[in-house]
């Protein structure tokens, strides 16, 4: 309990901006702890490829199933 009082007293000595930084830092530490403690197999973040460009198909028109007359010749450059 003494440690709580010391932390709170020091916190009140900080400027409002510093207090916000301290709260943000504490949130960061709690987030790290949550990730470390989480042993469940659930994925909490986006897949590694989320938000990236779609894969470019590099096969021939025949292999893609797209009719040759609809094939964009940019794929061959």
Number of domains: 1
Largest sheet: none
Helical content class: 40-55%
What is the string of SSEs from the N terminus onward?
HHH
What's the number of extended β-strand segments? Answer: 0
What is the CA-atom radius of gyration, in angstroms? 27 Å
Structural class, from secondary structure content?
mainly alpha
* Contiguous uncertain segments of 5+ residues: none
Strand content: under 5%
- Large-scale geometry: rod-shaped
User: What is the average per-residue confidence, as pLDDT, rounded to a whole number?
Assistant: 75
Distance between the termini: 69 Å
Determine the number of helices (DSSP H or I, runs of at least 4 residues): 3
In short, what is this structure?
With 77 residues, the protein is mainly α. The protein has helices spanning 2-13, 16-37, 61-64.
Overall description:
- The protein has 77 residues and is mainly alpha-helical.
- The protein has one domain (2-76).
- It contains three helices and no strands.
- It has helices at 2-13, 16-37, 61-64.
- The mean pLDDT is 75.
Question: Which helices and strands, and how do they pair?
Answer:
Layout: H1 2-13, H2 16-37, H3 61-64
Index terms:
single chain; mainly alpha; 49% helix; rod-shaped; 77 residues; 3 helices
